[in-house]
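Continuing from yesterday's entry. The apo prediction looked reasonable, so today I'm repeating it with zinc ion included to see how the binding region is handled. Same sequence as before; SMILES copied from the compound registry.
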Amino acid sequence: MPLTLDQLNAASPAEAAALLDGLYEHSPWIAERALARRPFASIHQLKHAMVQVLDEAGRDAQLTLIRAHPELAGKAMVSKTLTAESTHEQSASGLTNCSPAEFERIQQLNAAYNARFGFPFILAVRGPRGTGLTRAEIIATFARRLGNHPDFELREALRNIHRIVEMRLNDKFGFAPTFGNQVWDCAELLAQHSDPGYAEQGQLTVTYLTAAHQACQAQLQRWMSDCGFDEVSVDAVGNVVGVYHGSDPQARRLLTGSHYDTVRNGGKYDGRLGIFVPLVAVRELHRAGRRLPFGIEVIGFAEEEGQRYKATFLGSGAVIGQFDPAWLEQRDADGITMREAMRAAGRPGTLEAIGAMKRDPSSYLGFVEVHIEQGPVLNEIDLPLGVVTSINGSVRYVGEVVGMASHAGTTPMDRRRDAAAAVAELVLFLERRAAGVPNLVGTVGMLEVPGGSINVVPGRCRFSLDIRATTNEVRDACAADTLAELERICTRRGLHHTLEETMRAAAAPSAPEWQARWERAVESLGLPIYRMPSGAGHDAMKLHEVMPQAMLFVRGLNSGISHNPLESSTNDDCDLSVRAFQHVLEQLCSELS
Ligand SMILES: [Zn+2]
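Holo prediction written out below.
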């Protein structure tokens, strides 16, 4: 019989501790201390309480816990002295069937890892879906993590322990994250489609209107139909649109969705997660034969990343009536215009058809978007969900400082006009200036000395500036200070410079009532509310111009890395994002009825 929360909440401390036995390796104190925080409203709240207990216990206790774990495929496995839980996990992952070469490689890694970090390598070998990593995946992760900073790796070991416990706890409670499994499996299946040149290398690249992009369209349409959407179509720019009618088909709609195109060699969740989550929610409504007092319109946006054509946010832009006519004549790397690409993909390729896509904002309640965080914050604080307060406004510049190229041997230090040294000063200034203000970031991502050589004082230095903040005012104040500093540096060093603003996007603060709905949804799951800005741009920025919007962030694994094949999420986190979305639907139901 699976354990129930009521049972756990009602048990005496000793009984409750016995019910949670075997969660943390040889460390029952973690569950015991967490149990002092009963009653738990959800299994997620219990998980989070244990995360907090270990966090508060300090480094020594954390190290003791890590050291209580067996080595991966180590002596304990061979001599069969693992705990029952570890035996199950290590054999389910196939580690007991290692080839001699694999076994030897793991022993080498174990030795190197122990020498570097002083504790054994810990990996949740059941993986992000709970079905087990392959031995090749385990070995690759092991080798990669060997390169981590020791402080970071300690945290990564703890995160893996919590993930192991999460799955052990699910087993105890007989809980299966079935919504999350559906989302996770959709992400895997959609990632089967990839552009030529990348597909062969197992990399995910889906750029605008390629064959792989059209295959994704077809797949999303099939899924929408299977989930019970009433209307499914592909619009003039390739957005996949599904409508699930409200009890009155004319009722206003909740608009949601995200993009299905990817960057080159990107991840499986960026954008796509925000399409799958509402699909699963609508599937549940349809299965229950339920109609809400409002409709749900899900859009899989065709283009957000601006990879094949420089037309970022093309999909969501067209929906709000912003489509630059010049884009149709833009050519990709093979010389194919966007108009030609649209026609080849069965779209009309006319401004008239694109213009007809424009939505009337008064037909919508608002826009919500679920998105993988694409940053390290949630992963670092061990929280699955974050509520977005604002999508950062940004401004970008490219510039060049010009000094005098001269002989590195014969030009005395006090006679130099070194352009690179000047830009280096600027880099450090921006770093300090941005670090001094919360939620402000400044980056010099491009820095080059054109035609530089080892024995020449740099005469020119090209650079870029990228400044983002939650408000336009904070962004602009930082930009103004940085530009003034550039002026001062150049005057002092006797240099001159050019600077061109190449991009400016306004901040998109979440609509307070929509942000509050996400907050209540997170709270309903038993999780603390964590508010955070979005450092990256999203489709919600476009919809923001015509209707209220708010976003929910979902934790990414591997430090939240994104635009990278290591981007990853667990079935449990995906499951929570579906449940949060469902809660927003329920809130709207009670508000509107
Ligand atoms: Zn995205």
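Comparison notes:
- The radius of gyration is 27 Å.
- The longest strand covers residues 393-402.
Will overlay with the apo model tomorrow.
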